[in-house]
């Protein structure tokens, strides 16, 4: 097993952030690997509290108008109070843990030669050790085609195994037709109560939540006994377990209890048809490799053979283990494939992995950066199908979002705010305006739809899916635009989640923000381009262009920085983790290093003033910013910071970002976005593409003198392979169709493929 594609440890996981994740997009498990008491902490991506509900707040449009008027009069604090008191709506629902599978091995004695691993080339995890000269092995994988988790345990001498479930939710355990079943129920509500959400069970059917069944089947050469709440196996040398789970979730707009789908029979169907372990495993590995193997990265340099925990510690000191960077890159691609596949839910704040009853931020979809970051790498690393759940979510959100646009703003089109959940919450949650009052996600998410077209070149997708959603999101911003002195802007607004000082007070609502203007402008320009490609909606495109022409420009402040709000106010927190006003630089391309050097310089000043420190995702975003500024050395500095070993799991909003022992990104706490920002950042250091241009090695750090990357995708559906030596491209291959400008070793070359 290669050290750039294998995580391994020489002792069991003592904490969840040391355990190893597997997943098939829907089912997730964290494997601890204890010698005697194995534990798999389990998840199902549909297991959320709540149900569809009307979250529009009465009187919201009037409140919005009041706030707008106050902001226009520069009464920022009053505008904010108005929003917080009379505009915002209810809390998001929460993602729940499914339960634990406990596998007790009747092993007595001390283990030797212990190894616990996750092999990214095959998406297989395992544990092996010897006790009293008897060798034990365990193997785990999650299968997308077979909808299950497979496990195989072998031992050199007959062994006893006891299998049971435990669960933090209302649940019961039984044996049904030789399947050990866990039947559980999610809470009908994640009620907000004095600022703290409480998950609540109700009696009335209309208030009940989602139901689910998890099941395990054993296939063994030992003697099997079924207890009331366990399976006991005696004298086995070979045992296979199959695990699956199904919920009553029947769509974001269906009541999960009253209109829930059948969920018990599918568990039995999946498990009874699972009989050939080796074939199921082979199918699953092939299915995974079909995506994973499209990209390969080699950066010449040291690559340590030490265990992953030791490598992290060592890296902090020497920063020399380039193989660790490649490992974390490959791990990010693995996590994307394992948490997001066609037909599943999009990856939430924790992907699909969560063991907490009260997960940080409810493990919801936080869409003021986090969910988007989850999907930054997927198109450029050639995994377009991994994007599908996000696209489906945006489709659904446009329905709830149209209700939110009308009900909250009396506006056309659709809108979503900073939190989304399984039920496609589109209204602003209650709480501080600094996070809750932000209507940028509909626009931001549409950038992913347009990029899906840009990368794949799929015009049918643009016509049927992306364009109508982009148009609806654009209609909303168009409809709520404010005009003053011949200029148009979105008033009022907040720049997530950072405020400014005005009249000695911290304010979070301004007349407008650079980010909301960039999001709207970017969306309008992409919508205009899309309408031209499709040859439709000429008048609408004209209206958008007329508005763009009147929109506030990006403005540079007295210290050369980009301004974040309407005025040059002092920052409330100069080193704040969000750098939202650089949206134009990344993910958008309104600022480019070669096209708009003055603004690029202002972006650089902004980053310098903000500082490098940050949460995991903040470091991740900064890798991408520096890559876009063509500064590979600074990007590498952020990569090195992101690989700092972290143990603490408490919420830290400061500069504590890093990496846990299992290579999960540490906000802290664990938040998966940083893993994905890491992958897109490295990819953008090696290749960028926009407007028919393909940049090879635009931000290569001095330290990465030679290497190769294969199988990346550039916009226009071009597959890109690059080999470099002595810091220069030595060979490259582009596969696709069309005419492009390739920027290679400082020269521009026109190529027709
Ligand atoms: C945003 C960020 C926090 C955290 C949370 C889930 O609010 O500002 O750092 O990532 O989302």
Protein model, in words:
The chain has 17 helices and 32 strands. With 753 residues, it is an alpha+beta fold. Strands 1, 2, 3, 4, 5, 6, 7, 8, 9, 10, 11, 14, 15 and 16 form a 14-stranded antiparallel β-sheet that branches. The model has no long low-confidence stretch (mean pLDDT 97).
Helix-strand layout with pairing:
Elements: E1 6-9, E2 20-23, E3 27-31, E4 37-44, H1 60-72, H2 76-87, E5 99-105, E6 111-119, E7 124-131, E8 134-143, E9 148-166, E10 170-176, E11 179-185, E12 189-193, E13 196-200, E14 211-220, E15 223-226, E16 231-247, H3 264-272, H4 277-292, E17 296-299, H5 308-318, H6 322-339, E18 365-366, H7 370-380, H8 388-409, E19 419-420, H9 433-436, H10 441-456, H11 459-480, E20 481-484, E21 487-490, E22 500-502, E23 505-507, H12 514-534, H13 538-550, H14 597-610, H15 616-628, H16 632-642, E24 658-659, E25 665-666, H17 673-686, E26 687-690, E27 693-696, E28 707-714, E29 718-725, E30 728-735, E31 739-744, E32 747-752
Parallel strand pairs: 27-31
Antiparallel strand pairs: 1-6, 2-3, 3-4, 4-5, 5-9, 6-7, 7-8, 8-9, 9-16, 10-11, 11-14, 12-13, 14-16, 15-16, 17-28, 18-19, 20-21, 22-23, 24-25, 26-27, 28-29, 29-30, 31-32
The site of alpha-L-fucopyranose has 13 residues, from loops.
């Amino acid at each position: 097993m290669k050290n750039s594609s294998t995580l391994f440890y020489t002792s069991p996981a003592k904490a969840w952030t040391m355990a190893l994740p597997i997943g098939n997009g829907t089912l997730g498990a964290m494997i601890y690997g204890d010698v005697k008491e194995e534990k798999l902490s389990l998840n199902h991506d549909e297991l959320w509290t709540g149900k569809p509900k009307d979250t529009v707040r009465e009187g919201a449009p009037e409140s919005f108008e009041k706030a707008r008027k106050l902001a226009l009069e520069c009464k920022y604090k009053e505008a904010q109070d108005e929003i917080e008191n009379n505009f915002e709506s209810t809390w998001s629902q929460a993602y729940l843990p499914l339960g634990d599978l406990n596998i007790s091995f009747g092993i007595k004695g001390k283990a030797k030669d212990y190894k616990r691993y996750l092999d990214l080339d095959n998406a297989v995890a395992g544990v092996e050790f010897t006790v009293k000269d008897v060798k034990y092995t365990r193997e785990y994988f999650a299968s997308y085609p077979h909808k299950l988790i497979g496990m195989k345990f072998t031992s050199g001498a007959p062994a006893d195994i006891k299998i049971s479930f435990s669960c933090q939710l209302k649940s019961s355990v039984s044996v049904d037709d030789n399947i050990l079943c866990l039947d559980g129920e999610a809470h009908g509500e994640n009620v907000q109560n004095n600022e703290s959400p409480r998950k609540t069970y109700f009696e009335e059917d209309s208030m009940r939540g989602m139901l689910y069944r998890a099941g395990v089947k054993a296939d063994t050469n030992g003697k099997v006994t079924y207890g009331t709440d366990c399976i006991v196996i005696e004298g086995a040398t070979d045992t296979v377990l199959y695990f699956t789970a199904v919920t009553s979730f029947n769509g974001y707009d269906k009541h999960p209890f009253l209109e829930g789908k059948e969920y018990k029979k599918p568990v039995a169907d999946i498990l009874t048809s699972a009989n050939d372990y080796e074939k199921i495993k082979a199918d699953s590995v092939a299915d995974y490799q079909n995506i994973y193997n499209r990209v390969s990265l080699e950066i010449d340099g040291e690559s340590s053979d030490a265990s992953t925990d030791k490598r992290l510690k060592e890296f902090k000191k020497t920063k020399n283990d380039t193989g660790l960077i490649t490992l974390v890159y490959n791990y990010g691609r693995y996590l994307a494939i394992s948490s997001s596949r066609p037909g599943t839910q999009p990856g939430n704040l924790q992907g699909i992995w969560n063991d907490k009853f009260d997960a940080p931020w409810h493990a919801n979809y936080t869409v003021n950066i986090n969910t988007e970051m989850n999907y930054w790498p997927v198109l450029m690393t050639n995994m377009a199908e991994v994007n599908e759940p996000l696209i489906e979510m945006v489709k659904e959100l446009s329905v709830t979002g149209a209700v939110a646009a009308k009900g909250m703003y009396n506006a056309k089109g659709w809108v979503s705010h900073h939190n989304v959940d399984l039920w496609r919450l589109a209204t602003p949650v209650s709480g501080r305006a600094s996070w809750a009052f932000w209507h940028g996600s509909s626009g931001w998410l549409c950038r992913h739809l347009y990029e899906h077209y840009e990368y794949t070149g799929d015009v049918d997708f643009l016509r049927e899916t992306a364009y109508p959603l982009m148009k609806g999101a654009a209609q909303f911003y168009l409809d709520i635009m404010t005009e003053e002195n011949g200029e148009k802007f979105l008033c009022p607004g907040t720049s997530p989640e950072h405020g400014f000082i005005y009249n000695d007070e911290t304010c979070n609502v301004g007349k407008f923000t650079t980010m909301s203007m960039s999001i709207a402008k970017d969306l309008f320009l992409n919508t205009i381009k899309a309408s031209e490609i499709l040859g439709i909606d000429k008048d609408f495109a004209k209206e958008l262009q007329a508005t763009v022409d009147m929109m506030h420009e990006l403005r540079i402040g007295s210290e050369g920085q980009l301004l974040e709000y309407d005025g040059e106010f002092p920052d409330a927190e100069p080193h704040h983790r969000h750098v939202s006003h650089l949206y134009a630089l990344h993910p958008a391309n309104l600022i480019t290093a070669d096209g708009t050097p003055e603004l690029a310089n202002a972006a650089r000043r902004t980053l310098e003033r903000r500082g490098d420190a940050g949460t995991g995702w903040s470091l991740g975003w900064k890798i991408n910013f520096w890559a876009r500024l063509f500064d590979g050395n600074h990007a590498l500095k952020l990569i090195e910071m992101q690989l700092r070993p972290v143990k603490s799991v408490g919420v830290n909003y400061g500069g504590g970002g890093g990496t846990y022992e299992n290579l999960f990104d540490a906000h802290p706490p664990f938040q998966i976005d940083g893993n994905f920002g890491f992958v897109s950042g490295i990819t953008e250091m090696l290749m960028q593409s926009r407007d028919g241009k393909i940049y090879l090695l635009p931000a290569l750090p001095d330290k990465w003198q030679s290497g190769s990357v294969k199988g990346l995708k550039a916009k226009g559906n071009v597959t890109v392979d690059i080999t470099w030596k002595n810091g220069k491209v030595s060979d490259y291959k582009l596969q696709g169709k069309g005419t492009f400008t390739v920027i290679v070793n400082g020269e521009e070359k026109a190529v027709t493929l």
